[in-house]
Structure formats: structure tokens, C-alpha cells
Amino acid sequence: MVYLARKNGAVIHHTDMEAMKTMDGIGKAEMEISDEEFEAAGSLARIIDGKIFIGKTDEEKAADDARVRIAALKKKLAETDYIAAKITEGSATTKEYADKIAERQAWRAEINELEELLS
């Protein structure tokens, strides 16, 4: 069990109520959750809108998802960079790779949109 309480504008958490009392002078927890729930929330507890909030907000989760998507798209771009080299060297034409070039443009556009949302 994880015991949570507010102290000096921050959330204090302990796995032992007696430790909370001894170390922080807090005699009663405001919230109790299981160790598993606390770990699943990334061991993150904060005060939001005057209440103890466990884990990330929906906005933070969306931003994390956007960062993951950006990284995946950048990886796809890196994996297909050879196309530009082949076209530049004359060993391929833009017509041969038209579908992949269009895909790359779509990936770049999505990256730009996601990066704009994050800023």
C-alpha cells in the first residue's frame, strides 16, 4: 500500500504509515493506493487543481504518444533516405519511387503537425 498526503505544496508518499508520521509528521494519509497502481502510474503523484493526482494527465499522455509517433516517422524517413541518394546519383528516377516519395512527404507533413501541437 502507498500512502499519500500533501505537505508544503507537494505530495508525500510512503509505503509505511508509521514512517509518514515519523518522517513527515503526517498522521493520516489523504489517499491510499496499491503499490501496483502507483508503479503503473510511473510513481508520479502531484497536486493538480488542489487535489492529489496520480499519473499523467490526458494531455501529457497525448504528448508522449505524439513524441513516439514522431520518432517512428523519423525512423521511416531515415530508412528511405537511400532513395534521394539513388535519384541524385542518377541510378533511379523520381518516377520509379513516386509512391515512396509521396509517402515521405506525408510523413514529413505529419511530423510537422505533431511538432506544432507539442510547441
Structure commentary:
The chain is an alpha+beta fold. It contains 5 helices and 5 strands. A 3-stranded antiparallel beta sheet has the order 2-1-3. A two-stranded antiparallel sheet has the order 4-5. Strand 4 and strand 5 form a beta hairpin. Helix 3 packs antiparallel against helix 5. The longest helix is centred in the middle third of the chain and has 22 residues. The model has no long low-confidence stretch (mean pLDDT 95).
Largest sheet: 3 strands, antiparallel
Rg from Cα: 24 Å
* Spatial gap, N to C terminus: 38 Å
Q: How confident overall, as mean pLDDT?
A: 95
Flag low-confidence runs.
none
Helix run count: 5
Shape: rod-shaped
Q: Which sequence of SSEs, written as H and E, runs from N to C?
A: EEHEHEEHHH
**Order of strands in the sheet with the most strands?**
2-1-3
DSSP strand content? 15-25%
Helix percent reads 40-55%
E-strand count: 5
Report the structural category. alpha+beta
How would you sum up this structure in a few lines?
This protein has five helices and five strands. It has 119 residues and is of the alpha+beta class.
What labels would you give this structure?
5 helices; two-stranded antiparallel ribbon; alpha+beta; 55% helix; 119 residues; rod-shaped
Topology summary:
Layout: E1 2-7, E2 10-14, H1 17-24, E3 31-33, H2 35-40, E4 45-48, E5 51-54, H3 58-79, H4 82-89, H5 98-118
Antiparallel strand pairs: 1-2, 1-3, 4-5
